[in-house]
Amino acid sequence: MRLAVTGHEGQVAASLIERGRDDVEVVAVGRPALDLARPETIFAALEAARPDIVVSAAAYTAVDQAEDEKDLAFAINAAGAGKVAEAAARLGVPVIQLSTDYVFDGSKDGAYVETDATAPLGVYGASKLAGEEAVAAANPRHLILRTAWVYSPFGRNFVKTMLRLAAERHEISVVADQWGNPTSALDIADAILHAAAILRDDKSFAASGVYHLAGSGETNWSGFARHVLDASRAFGGPHASVRDIATADYPTKAKRPANSRLSSAKFADVFGWRSPEWRAAAEEVVRRLERFKI
Ligand SMILES: NC(=O)C1=CN([C@@H]2O[C@H](COP(=O)(O)OP(=O)(O)OC[C@H]3O[C@@H](n4cnc5c(N)ncnc54)[C@H](O)[C@@H]3O)[C@@H](O)[C@H]2O)C=CC1
C-alpha cells in the first residue's frame, strides 16, 4: 500500500516517513510540487504519487500569526484541505485529514467527544473547522482526526522549546491553567498506519467520520514542561525549574482554549488502537533528542 502525506517536513509527515513499514510505503508530497495555497498544483502532485490513501497533514499552523493572515490561513487550511480531499476522491482513494482541538472553545468540563459543539476561539481553529467541512463535502471516504499538543523529534514544538530554554536559564514560566493531552507525532503516525490498513479493506467506508486522537492521560502546560525537564535531567540533558503562571500573565494574539482535553475512546473502539500514556511517550522523544543532540 502507498500512503501519500502532504508536507515534507511537518512533524506528522516526518513521523509517518520514519514509521513506514514494509507493507506501507510512505511518500511525502510538498512544496513546490504541491502548494496548498496554489490549488492548481494539488491534483497533479497527488496523482503523480499514485497513492492508495492520502494523509492531509500539511497546514498553516502558526496560531498567532493566523490572526493577521486570515485569508492565507483559510486558503491553506480550508480551501487547500478541501482540494486535497477532492483530488483523493478523483483518484478513488480515501483521505485522512488532520485537525485540531482548537475547533473547541474550551468551556466544557471534562474531555471533548466528537459530537460536542464546535466554537473556535481564533482564526486558526476556524480555518481548520472550515477544512473539516470542505473535506467531508469533497470525499465521502474520509477520516478527520482531531489531535492536540503535538510534539516529536522533528520540526518546532513545545518539547524542543523547553529543552532549548532550559539550556539558557534556571527558571521557565509556563501557563498552568490550560489543560490537554500531549501527543507524540510518532504515535499519531502509528495510529494512522494502523487505521490505513483497515480503511483499505473497508470498501463501504462505514468508518468515515470525525475522530479524536490524542495522547492518553492529561496535564497542563507547566506539568508537561516539568515532566519533559525531569526526563531531560535523567538522560543527562539540561534542567530548569518551572514556575506556574496564568494565561492572563502570558498574553498571546490568539486566544487558546482553557480545556483542550480530547476523548480518544471512539478511535479506540472503531480501530482497536489506543494512544500510549503521554508521560512515557514524552520520555521517549526527550531521550532521542538528548541522545542525538537534535
Ligand atoms: N502541532 C500541533 O500541536 C497540532 C497540529 N495539528 C494539526 O496536525 C497536522 C500536522 O501538524 P504538524 O505536523 O505539527 O505541523 P507542522 O507545522 O510541523 O508542519 C506543517 C507542514 O505543512 C507545510 N505547509 C505549510 N503551508 C503549506 C502550503 N501552502 N503547501 C504545502 N505545504 C505547506 C509546512 O511546510 C510543514 O511541512 C496539521 O494539520 C495541524 O493543523 C492539530 C493539533 C495540534
From TrEMBL:
EC number in record: 1.1.1.133
Cofactor(s), by name: Mg(2+)
Reaction equations catalysed: dTDP-beta-L-rhamnose + NADP(+) = dTDP-4-dehydro-beta-L-rhamnose + NADPH + H(+)
UniProt keyword annotations, A-Z: NADP, Oxidoreductase
Domain named RmlD-like substrate binding: residues: 1-289
Gene Ontology MF terms: dTDP-4-dehydrorhamnose reductase activity
Role played: Catalyzes the reduction of dTDP-6-deoxy-L-lyxo-4-hexulose to yield dTDP-L-rhamnose.
Pathway: Carbohydrate biosynthesis; dTDP-L-rhamnose biosynthesis
Record-linked CDD domains: dTDP_HR_like_SDR_e
Superkingdom, taxonomy of origin: Bacteria
Family from the record: Belongs to the dTDP-4-dehydrorhamnose reductase family.
Cited InterPro entries: dTDP_dehydrorham_reduct, NAD(P)-bd_dom_sf, RmlD-like-bd
UniProt keyword Oxidoreductase, yes or no: yes
NCBIfam families registered for this protein in UniProt: rmlD
Cofactor binding remark: Binds 1 Mg(2+) ion per monomer.
Name of this chain's protein: dTDP-4-dehydrorhamnose reductase
